[in-house]
Design a protein that fits this description.
Elements lengths: L8 E6 L4 E6 L2 E6 L8 E5 L4 E5 L2 E2 L9 E5 L8 E5 L2 E3 L5 E2 L8 E4 L35 E5 L6 E6 L2 E5 L9 E6 L2 E6 L3 E6 L2 E5 L8 E4 L6 E4 L4 E8 L2 E7 L5 E5 L1
Length: 261
């Protein structure tokens, strides 16, 4: 379980959707909009899960006669959860039901992690092939995008040294910004104002233009989750110490997401 959840106030972001959660009259409500429009919740640690608290009261829907829990999901990402009540899971219709393809996946954020004030755009992420973890079209230039690695908020784009991209342990709101460009049916990544991300001798670097060395996003089976790859290989993180890491070529890559704000 993530220690970052314990006794902190946070809001739910629904994975791959521009939606968040409220809790009213003994029920969850899914609303469209930026996560800052959702209600504030709190987690209380127990043996294999977290109990969920709202307005200083544990959630205990009378119709289900059980406490609401936050449990680690079955996805290969850290800090992605399901909301559970007894043996049932919160689904995309805001009902508790058996675990299925309709089960809701959520991520949690504290308000300090948001730079943007309430953003009220209302559109369905179902229309877009490439979306952020919070459901925004990656080609929507009214948003900025930041990198999240393996679902861990603290691992994010930070800086580049000697033309090599580095990743630090600062919270992601200090990070460089990303934008995206579709070319030849592939989505290439621009890193701040420095240029496009590419690969040189199995290491990610910055190039002024898209070229044969440029890397691109590859979609995974999980909506809003990608791999970064070149034509020949995937890329993953190498950790040198807690505050310094670099991307290198690998036979497998990290799970990559982008947060829109």
């Amino acid at each position: 379980m993530s220690d970052s959840l314990i006794y902190k106030e946070y809001r739910f972001s629904i994975l791959g959707q521009y939606k968040t959660l409220k809790y009213e009259e003994d029920s969850f409500i899914i609303i469209s909009g930026h996560i800052t429009q959702g209600d504030i919740f709190r987690a209380i640690e127990r043996e294999n899960s977290f109990l969920v608290e709202h307005n200083n009261s544990l959630l205990f829907p009378l119709s289900y006669n059980s406490e609401v829990e936050l449990v680690i999901s079955d996805l290969d990402l850290e800090e992605i959860y399901n909301i559970k009540c007894g043996d049932l899971y919160l689904d995309i219709y805001a009902n508790f039901s058996e675990f299925s393809q309709s089960t809701l996946y959520v991520q949690t954020y504290t308000d300090i992690e948001f730079i943007r004030t309430n953003k009220t755009l209302d559109y369905s992420s179902d229309y877009f092939d490439y979306i952020s973890l919070n459901g925004v079209n990656l080609f929507d230039n009214s948003f900025n995008f930041l990198l999240i690695i393996d679902g861990r908020h603290e691992l994010s784009s930070n800086d580049f040294i000697e033309e090599s991209i580095c990743v630090g342990s600062n919270e992601f709101y200090y990070s460089e910004l990303f934008s995206f460009e579709m070319y030849d049916s592939k989505v290439f990544i621009k890193y701040g104002n420095f240029g496009y991300i590419g690969a040189d001798e199995s290491q990610l670097r910055i190039f002024p233009y898209i070229n044969d060395n440029s890397v691109f996003l590859e979609k995974t089976d999980v909506k809003s989750v990608y791999k970064i790859r070149s034509y020949n290989e995937y890329f993953r993180l190498e950790f040198y110490k807690s505050s310094y890491m670099e991307f290198f070529g690998s036979s497998y890559g990290n799970n990559i997401q982008f947060y829109a704000y």
